[in-house]
């Protein structure tokens, strides 16, 4: 790795993370045009598969060397992460404060670290037990579970966001079992293909696999911009950041990458607060900063443990 590549690596991670953070810009208006969030996720996967196929088809030969165990992890990742997790995220943006939702999702690394310990017996760093509770407490303050006014109301959006974080965290752990046996473009492409199969089954099971539900009048009234939002969601906020992120990760120390991944939260909050005018109160802002910082320290502690 050249010095130039090493310098560029963290910024590629930041660019990928920031582009991921833009997805609220497309999901929020799409929620206004589609009654059913799972239909949005279905169309998102149609576009994602179109982006992924040129990367998948030349690499299918790799599957001859992939174990059944890795294929099982890939199947789980596609269903839980690509399909079900995206449904809950779309529901969270529809029913909750989108700024809170995007910050709450930062609890995901705490969940995935815990899952890696339970499934793979990964070591937990001593500092995990310091920073993880701080992250959880900050998250509780953020969503109103620990409020000076003792107002314990939590909207449905927060619940959906936590379920989403759980599925995405488990999917991250499952991805570890896949990436050791196949290349990133193939693994990512097959993941979204499995996601599309899953979404087709979910939409069909709910009786939504016909014209009026797949493409309602509210979408057809603005067909051009609706299609543009779907393509932007799958491309600019989905497949393209994935390529930037993993290329950057190859050139970046894991402990450094964790800090640059914060760009995802910053971009998401800039969009939901700046463009959709959905903000946070002063106490929530403080809790959000503590949450993101604590999660970054959890990642740093775990990565240092992995290297020791």
Counted up, domains total 1
Poorly predicted runs are none
Task: Tell me what portion of residues adopts beta-strand conformation.
Answer: under 5%
Alpha plus pi helix count: 15
Q: Mean pLDDT, rounded to whole units?
A: 88
**Which structural class matches the secondary elements?**
mainly alpha
Order of helices and strands: HHHHHHHHHHHHHHH
How large is the radius of gyration?
A: 19 Å
How much helical structure, as a percent, in the residues?
over 70%
Shape: globular
Give me the count of strands: 0
The end-to-end distance, rounded to whole angstroms, is 22 Å
Short summary of the structure?
This protein has 308 residues and is mostly helical. The chain has 15 helices and no strands.
Q: Any key phrases for this structure?
A:
single chain; 308 residues; mainly alpha; 15 helices; 78% helix
Strand and helix map with partners:
Blueprint: H1 3-20, H2 24-33, H3 37-56, H4 68-95, H5 98-104, H6 108-120, H7 128-143, H8 156-179, H9 184-205, H10 211-214, H11 217-220, H12 223-250, H13 254-260, H14 263-274, H15 282-307
Helix pairs in contact: 1-12, 1-14, 2-12, 3-4, 3-9, 3-12, 4-8, 4-9, 5-8, 5-14, 6-8, 7-15, 13-15
């Amino acid at each position: 790795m050249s010095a130039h590549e090493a310098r560029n690596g963290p910024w590629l991670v930041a660019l990928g993370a920031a582009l991921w953070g833009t997805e609220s810009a497309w999901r929020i208006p799409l929620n206004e045009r589609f009654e059913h969030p799972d239909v949005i996720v279905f169309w998102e996967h149609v576009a994602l598969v179109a982006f992924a196929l040129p990367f998948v088809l030349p690499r299918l030969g790799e599957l001859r060397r992939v174990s059944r165990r890795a294929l099982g992890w890939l199947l789980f990742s596609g269903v839980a992460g690509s399909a079900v997790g995206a449904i809950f995220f779309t529901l969270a943006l529809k029913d909750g404060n989108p700024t809170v939702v995007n910050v709450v999702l930062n609890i995901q690394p705490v969940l995935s670290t815990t899952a890696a310990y339970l499934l793979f017996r990964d070591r937990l760093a001593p500092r995990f037990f310091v920073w993880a509770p701080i992250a959880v407490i900050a998250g509780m303050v953020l969503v109103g579970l620990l409020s000076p006014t003792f107002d314990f109301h939590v909207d449905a959006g927060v619940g959906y966001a936590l379920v989403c974080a759980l599925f995405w965290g488990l999917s991250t752990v499952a991805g570890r079992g896949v990436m050791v046996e196949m290349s990133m473009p193939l693994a990512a492409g097959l993941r979204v293909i499995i996601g599309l199969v899953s979404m087709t089954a979910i939409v069909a099971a709910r009786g939504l696999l016909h014209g009026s539900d797949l493409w309602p009048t509210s979408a057809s009234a603005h067909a051009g911009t609706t299609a543009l939002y779907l393509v932007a969601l799958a491309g600019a906020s989905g497949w393209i950041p994935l390529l930037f992120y993993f290329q950057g990760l190859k050139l970046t120390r894991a402990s450094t990458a964790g800090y640059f991944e914060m760009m995802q939260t910053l971009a998401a909050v800039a969009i939901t607060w700046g463009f959709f005018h959905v903000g946070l109160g002063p106490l929530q802002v403080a809790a959000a900063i503590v949450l993101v910082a604590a999660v970054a320290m959890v990642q740093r502690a775990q990565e240092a443990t992995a290297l020791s």
